[in-house]
Amino acid sequence: MDFAAYENREGVRMSFNAWPCSRIEATRIVLPTGALVTPGKSIPEMPVLPYEPVVCEGCQGVLNPHCMVDYARKSWRCCLCDCMNNLPRNYHEINPQNLPAELFPTYTTVEYTMTNKNVKAPCFMIVLDTACPREELQDAKDSIGQLLALLPEECYVGLITFGATVTVHELSGTSPLPRSYVLRGTKDVTQEKVKKLLGLELTAQEYATYDKNTGSQVANELSAKSRFLLPVSECEFVLSNILEDLQPDCFPREKGQRPYRATGAAIAVASGVLAEAHSAQGARVMVFTTGPCTVGPGTIVGRDAEEDLRSHRDLDKNSAKHFKDATKFYNSMGIRLATSSHALDVFACSLDQVGLAEMKLAVDQTGGQVILAEQVGAENFRKSLRKMFARREDGTLEMLFNGTFSAFCTPHVMVQGCIGPVSALAVKSKSISENEVGLGQTTSWRMCAFTPSTSIAVYYEIVNQHSNPLPHGQPFYLQFCCRYKLSTGEIRLRCTTVARRWVESSAAPEIIGGFDQEACAVLMARVATFRTENEEAFDLLRWLDRTLIRAGTKFGEYRKDEPETFRLPPNVAIYPQFMFNLRRSPFLQTANNSPDETAFYRLALGRESVLNCLLMIQPTLTMYSMNGPPQPTMLDVTSITPDTILLLDGYFFVVVHSGTTIAQWRKANYQDLPDYAHFKQLLAQPVGDAHQLAESRCPTPRLVECDQGGSQARFLLAKLNPSNTHQTQHQSGWEQQQNFGGGEIIFTDDISLSVFMQHLAKLAVAS
């Protein structure tokens, strides 16, 4: 079964493509039944229909090719809830030879153009940290200038700067002098408070003469949209002048003290301004910060430089004194922003932590973007910003806004929940399961902002009773509808309907034949990382191990109590490797990572496509040599040889690793000699491939070039299977054969993949 073909046609990957027909049989397959949906994926064959969809009166599902249509009675039967519906009048002329596009058998994914009476372009509120050195502030201003050049002219933009105080800048340009409002950075402010402080309220006399339909001149002059948020085409000159005159925060800073930085208050003010002027429209709060919040709501660390930023050990011991209060504040900010369909982006340009661990939930539930860099002027930061504002062929931004994602299913299936950059909506349905996974108790979720690569994991529970078996081979249907807004203000509704089949038992060959081990690994990884918020990593590792052992017992071929006979079918054979690498990954192991880095990794895993998530879990390794073209090689320490170059793609970083012989030749400048042109080409090819990989991603991964035995080689060694360690005493013949080429030794206490598989086989075949 070609799972990639399904994804290219539908934008959906499922862990099992044939489902057991009862609740009892479903529990026996051990692994989750779920789907990874990419609602913004580019599908070339997908039609865009210039009208609104026909909706079922019973379940609100959309008419699709799997529905039965009665051409004589002008009605149709919903394939999801089996409800009969009348066709609208404009469909009365249809017949088998004259079908609308949504009934074509090949169009299981279609997009509808929805009517929009209030067409508004998205808004970008820039929140800039000025509590930084002059050089960094200049780099930040240059980056914002680059951002303005990337925005379409009709998009709205605003500017807020912060240090010890929060400054809201007017962009209207009607005053001969620049005007701004300075607010205290020590207190949280609500939307109503922002209205009052910025003079957005009408007096009693003005309100009495105000007409909601036509407005009034006074109201228009006072509105935030005419003062603080304007289209790029109208305010670019004023905004450029404000940025040019902007100076570092002038508040005095004592020796041995951190600067005053009111990040939390600035986000609260930005949220209030956007909620007042651009509510229920696409908007992003883009925070450019160079350090942690040190004053006011959302404080991460005190101003005393002797106070250390919290570490994972502090969080485990519950000794981070600011963590709970800061997390509570930023979570409330996330709810405020999500209610108005606004996203929170964090661009952290600092060698130190900035508080992303506390902001994680706010960023996640609003679909915001995170970019980590060592400084604002870093090249990978500039590239990430350009990629974030990339455009489609028609000139619109790739990013999508103000989305609502809904899942519909047949009565024999219930929705357990969803994991992704979403927030739950209070939509009740008969299809809601009591067993919650991720964000449950609903079938609809808000997606404030997302990209073409954003994927949503939906988890299902089969509830059909064993006493009421479904016929073997009978189809069932799942539908995913995503309503979103383009950067032009146009509203689209994408509807995807997938059909799969029931099988009579969990032992049916169709279960294994339709098992997508890659999608299942990502579904398991998302559940594990989601549960890290409330559970200990050790308990999660034990849960992963128990689940893998049960899966091995279920799907493996073996004789009882004979581990050497244990074999896994091809469709399941690589799944244990994914779990082995997931256990060692930074998603579950926090050693050598700060809380901010861990939050960044987990945010990315919870939203990227299946292929990107697999790279995060299990990187790919490519070998370059003079003996032939580049070829994939095993992710093992034995792949390191003196005369080869390795290219490791770990999604967050790309490593070009040269063997000792290659490094010596390069240092001797052999590549500059005419007789060694082939060696020069060998050196250039992996670096070129690495740059090509980096250009296609946002955020741009870190590029590491290192030599065997060098300090930077740790980026490669940390990802390799430690089949050779300082503790290895007895090796299998296979490992000895691999080591004959001159592999390296890793100093670690981690077990190797072969030992992991031996233990799995021993436990899976046990009576």
Secondary structure category: alpha+beta
Report how far apart the termini are: 33 Å
Task: Kindly report the average pLDDT value.
Answer: 91
The largest sheet, given as strand count, sense and whether it forms a barrel, is: 8 strands, mixed
Computed over alpha carbons, the radius of gyration is 28 Å
Shape assignment: globular
What does this structure look like?
- The protein has 767 residues and is of the alpha+beta class.
- Helix content is 31%, strand content 22%.
- The protein contains 23 helices and 30 strands.
- The strands form six sheets. Strands 2, 4, 8, 17, 19, 20, 22 and 23 form an eight-stranded mixed β-sheet that branches.
- α11 (356-366) runs parallel beside α17 and α14 (517-531) packs across α18.
- The longest helix is centred in the last third of the chain and has 19 residues, at 537-555.
- 44% of the residues are buried.
- The model is unreliable at 210-220 and 732-742 (pLDDT under 50).
